[in-house]
């Protein structure tokens, strides 16, 4: 499914970093080259254009995805049609791993932000591989635990942080990751309304904290953004935004 071209405010700039290899994924960092070769045979590479759906919310899950190139957003929609971006993943990160063990359906949909290359590994093939490479299981659990802590931090932030604080953290993270987000996506990611996001961005621009030129946000005073937000104890990979 193709996404329509947007004319909106965007954060950062997506640059081509080149396609990575299986050995660059943290969950496979303990594997030897001969083992990586076996896994490569099971990882079917698929290319997607910008704005395409990799898997739909509620769709059956038959395996998981490795992001080799590009950026993908994972989005949850409510019954009333409201959207919440759960996370954004880039090269070296994985998608759909939460359904590996319960064999359930996807509880959110994955949509590309830029042209993307992913590798798909079927559940059965991966479980067979794990039986012979148990260290990868611990790496996978480590990855799940890291994301769980990040989601716990974000949930707590919703309770005590203002909209400005949440947007400040997101703008800073996006600035280091060079991810492009529209204004609506920025609001979804921060968990605020579009009106609140527009108002906050206008305030930050009028105070000289950021500048908005050609629909792009440029950070002018990083120190101010750092000051108004409460830091998290956990630092994530720049290609993982939660």
Present the secondary structure layout.
Blueprint: E1 10-11, H1 33-42, E2 44-48, E3 53-55, E4 63-69, E5 72-77, E6 83-89, E7 94-95, E8 109-112, E9 116-122, H2 123-132, H3 134-160, H4 163-177, H5 183-190, H6 194-206, E10 210-213, E11 216-219, H7 222-228, E12 240-241
Parallel strand pairs: 1-11
Antiparallel strand pairs: 2-9, 3-8, 4-7, 4-9, 5-6, 5-8, 6-12, 10-11
Helix pairs in contact: 4-5, 4-7, 5-6
Task: Show unreliable segments.
Answer: 1-17
Class by helix and strand content? alpha+beta
Strand count: 12
**What is the alpha-carbon Rg in Å?**
18 Å
Please provide a written account of the structure.
This protein has 7 helices and 12 strands. The longest helix is centred in the middle third of the chain and has 27 residues, at 134-160. It folds into 2 domains: 16-155, Jelly Rolls (Sandwich), CATH 2.60.120.10; 161-232, Orthogonal Bundle (Arc Repressor Mutant, subunit A), CATH 1.10.10. The two termini are 24 Å apart. The protein is elongated. With 242 residues, it is of the alpha+beta class.
What's this model, at a glance?
This protein is of the alpha+beta class.
Keywords:
single chain; 242 residues; alpha+beta; Jelly Rolls; Arc Repressor Mutant, subunit A; 2 domains; 5-stranded antiparallel sheet; 4-stranded antiparallel sheet; 7 helices; elongated
